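agent> Task received from the user: take the single chain below, predict its 3D structure, and emit structure tokens. No templates, no multimer pairing.
agent> Plan: (1) validate residues, (2) run structure prediction, (3) serialize to tokens, (4) report one or two observations.
agent> Step 1 OK, no nonstandard residues flagged.
tool_call: predict_structure(input=
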Amino acid sequence: MSENLFSNDTLTEEEAFWVMWYYLEGHYELAGGQFDLSDILSASQPFEFDENGHFDGEVKGNRRIGPADSGMIWHWNEAVKKYREHGRPKPTQLKK
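)
tool_result: status=success, residues=96
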């Protein structure tokens, strides 16, 4: 599968919630234990791309919509795979 295309999975609302959890966990780990939601949201901002994969601000021809950073697609697909392999994450034990 191309790293620029979302996997063709159909998710329930609950499955999508846990995939999003794995998606955010992956970014947290990638950033060395820091979490900046604004970076993830801005990189995931949807744009229209032309047939060559460029965004040019024009609305014409064969267009597709995707996140500004196509790497976000890869991270999402990895989160889907992780959810399919591991299911819901184990609960964290609270410490006193």
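agent> Step 4: summary for the user.
Residues 19 and 79 are 5 Å apart (CA to CA).
agent> Done.
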